[in-house]
Specification:
Elements: E1 3-8, H1 13-24, E2 31-38, E3 40-47, H2 50-57, E4 66-72, E5 87-88, E6 94-102, H3 105-114, H4 124-139, H5 143-151, E7 156-164, E8 167-176, E9 181-184, E10 189-192, E11 204-207, E12 212-217, E13 223-226, E14 231-232, E15 237-238, H6 254-260, H7 262-270, E16 274-275, E17 280-281, H8 290-295, E18 298-303, H9 305-322, E19 326-330, H10 331-334, E20 345-351, H11 357-368, E21 372-377, H12 383-387, E22 390-393, H13 406-426, H14 431-452, H15 455-465, E23 470-475, H16 480-494, E24 497-502, E25 519-523, H17 530-542, E26 546-552, H18 557-561, E27 564-568, H19 576-594
Bound molecules: 6-O-phosphono-alpha-D-glucopyranose (G6P).
């Protein structure tokens, strides 16, 4: 979380920084700031979004060809003007932006106070810049040295950029556990938390690894080292992203655009990896690990949020098709639980961003115990993608809306293909089921398109339920995780309480909540448990609850008892989650818009959670 961006070159930095911050705003948006060097070191910062910062800066001089900017998701200290980054050192000669948490900041701060430093903010970041300044003065070293010594004293996570009034041609950057990428342009350099602010200027980038520093000097080549002062040769990569993918393209919100992109993003996630005609699957990223899967005694999925829900669907898929026992773990619980891990375990980390701190730590734990670690990530080159032994990208394209939509369905598409591939390799699936599955998967993008055509009808249902104070989401089997995901989408962006439950569990508690005020969304597309879900619906109706049912097209029985139904096209049961979640995304979206909520940047949330 927190977005950082910096520029050094011949252009004016301010417009580049502001545009960059807007692209990074999904990472945090409670305050923002920029620092510009132009003889003077000028800092402009305030509480609120980047648009508030623009208004705040309006009318003041914004000159400088070296500068940096930050958009914050508060960890230490309230989101206010003072705690906003950049932060100045005591002498006001040094400035820093920081993403991460300095865990030993309290003891460092205490020692600095003893040495005469005073603090204006509640942040851990101000401690770090004063530590750098103290070292610089005490040891009589240059800025690069001082940063390196300071980073050897801190415990925690950081991506930082430091600038100094006395070094008007240099930026110093470093990272550990929080991402940082350098863009290399023509006589100019960019730094950012991800490549989105860089892409319109250059495609050539260098991703910093943990404990690496970059010394970026105007007109010179980048110098990279580890914080142990070992030289590093910059590895320049070419970005595959395109700029259009980062714009709203005529939609009111990124979330709506991303919901509507799903036919394409699912197609892109499957493209080149399967042929339903030939009956073949090619997953290049895991091809050398198929035998490990064949021999595996257990698969453990680790993830957070929406990606954890994908893991739950994967549990059904891998057990059902490949007959491998599966566990699905919240990464944050797994990492601190002293879990039992074996060398023949396969641990699969699922993450849209590839940066989620808990997922990363959980996979590192699994790796240290000798398990094989596989990644399912969306962001190419992200930390999790780089730290895993092997993996498959989801290829959903950049997801900007904080509430995940197209990344979820892309994860389901890739996990379905993977489970099918492993099932075939293990000989646990019949040829006809295998072929039927592949044919159904190939048809999914088209079927998602058909679901999207019901957008207006779903909006009309949203109108009916927009004043609900609670919502219950029910599903069984493959669609139980979809109930969780539907409820998560709803509460994330409408701020209305919603709860997902296995339909049959309702009678053990949530049924007490049901009255005529309570919308109950039931995913009732399962063929295998159809009669049972009909009974669950009857139980809700008997208590005067309102039913919004997601059904398979042509359904008449549930249509006769539900208050509203939304149809999805027929597919095999294993793939219904990819279709049934789409109306739930739209329902949440429309209610959130009707309630005037900030759909793309819901309060208190961030897209990439790089703190634990
Ligand atoms: C945050 C986001 C969620 C996301 C979760 C896991 O909470 O707001 O949308 O599902 O992190 O993120 P990941 O990038 O690891 O999938």
């Amino acid at each position: 979380m927190c977005g950082i961006v910096a520029y050094i070159g011949e252009k004016q930095a301010y417009p580049i920084l502001i545009k960059g911050l807007q692209r990074l705003e999904y990472r945090g948006y409670d305050s923002a700031g920029v620092a510009l060097l132009n003889g003077q070191l000028n800092i402009y910062k305030c509480k609120g979004k980047v648009s508030d910062l623009k208004a705040h800066v309006n009318g003041t001089v914004k000159e400088g060809t070296l500068g940096m900017g930050h958009t914050r998701w508060a960890t230490h200290g309230a989101p206010n003007d003072i705690n906003a980054h950049p932060h100045l050192s005591e002498s006001k000669n040094l400035a820093i932006i920081h993403n991460g948490i300095i865990e030993n900041y309290a003891s460092l701060k205490e020692a600095l106070i003893q040495r005469g430093f005073s603090f204006k903010t509640e942040t851990d970041t101000e401690v770090l810049i004063n530590l750098i300044e103290d070292i610089k003065q005490k040891e009589q070293v240059d800025l690069e040295h001082a940063v390196r010594i300071a980073l050897n004293q801190v415990v925690g996570a950081y991506a930082i950029v430091v600038m100094s009034k006395d070094n008007p041609d240099t930026l110093i950057a470093a990272k550990k556990s929080s991402p940082l990428v350098i863009g290399i342009g023509q006589d100019e350099y960019f730094l950012a938390s991800d490549a989105t602010p860089i892409i319109e200027y250059t495609k050539n980038v260098v991703y910093l690894e943990d404990e690496e520093m970059a010394i970026i000097t105007r007109g010179e080549d980048i110098v990279m080292k580890t914080i142990q002062n070992q030289p590093v040769t910059p590895y320049i990569e070419e970005l595959q992203m395109n700029l259009e993918a980062l714009e709203k393209g005529g939609y009111d919100h990124f979330m709506l655009k991303e919901i509507f992109e799903q036919p394409q993003s699912i197609y892109d996630s499957l493209r080149g990896r399967m042929s339903s005609k030939e009956g073949t699957i090619l997953l290049g990223g895991i091809k050398d690990y198929v035998q490990k899967f064949v021999a595996a005694k257990r698969i453990i999925f680790i993830a957070c949020g929406t990606s954890w829900h994908s893991g739950l669907v994967a549990e059904y898929l891998f057990e059902d098709l490949a007959r491998i026992p599966v566990e699905v773990e919240y990464a944050s619980e797994f990492r601190y639980r002293n879990p039992v891990l074996y060398e023949d375990d396969i641990v699969i980390a699922i993450s849209q961003s590839g940066e989620t701190a808990d997922t990363l730590a959980a996979l590192e734990l699994a790796k240290s115990k000798g398990a094989t670690v596989i990644g399912i990530c969306n962001v190419v080159g992200s930390t999790i993608a780089r730290k895993t032994d092997a993996g498959c990208y989801t290829h959903a394209g950049p997801e900007i809306g904080v509430a995940s939509t197209k990344a979820f369905t892309a994860q389901l598409a890739v996990l379905s293909l993977m489970a099918l591939h492993i099932a075939q390799a293990r000989g646990s699936i019949t040829e006809s089921r295998y072929r039927g599955f592949l044919t159904a998967l190939a048809q999914i993008p088209k079927k998602v398109e058909e679901v999207l055509q019901q957008n207006d009808a779903i909006k009309a249902i949203a109108e009916k339920y927009k004043d609900a104070k609670n919502c219950l989401y029910l599903g069984r089997g493959y669609n139980f995780p979809v109930a969780l995901e539907g409820a998560l989408k709803f509460k994330e962006i409408t701020y209305v309480h919603a709860e997902g439950y296995p339909a049959a569990e309702m009678k053990h508690g949530p049924i007490a909540l049901i009255d005529e005020q309570m919308p109950v969304v039931v995913i009732a597309t399962n063929e295998s448990a159809y009669e049972k879900i009909v009974s669950n619906i009857q139980e809700v109706k008997a208590r005067k609850g309102n039913i919004i049912a997601i059904v398979t097209e042509g359904d008449t029985q549930i249509k006769a008892i539900a208050d509203f139904t939304i149809e999805i096209p027929h597919t095999i049961e294993e793939l219904t989650p990819i279709l049934s979640v789409v109306p739930l995304q739209l329902l949440a979206y429309h209610v959130a818009v009707m309630l005037g909520c900030h759909v793309d940047q819901p309060r208190n949330l961030a897209k990439s959670v790089t703190v634990e």
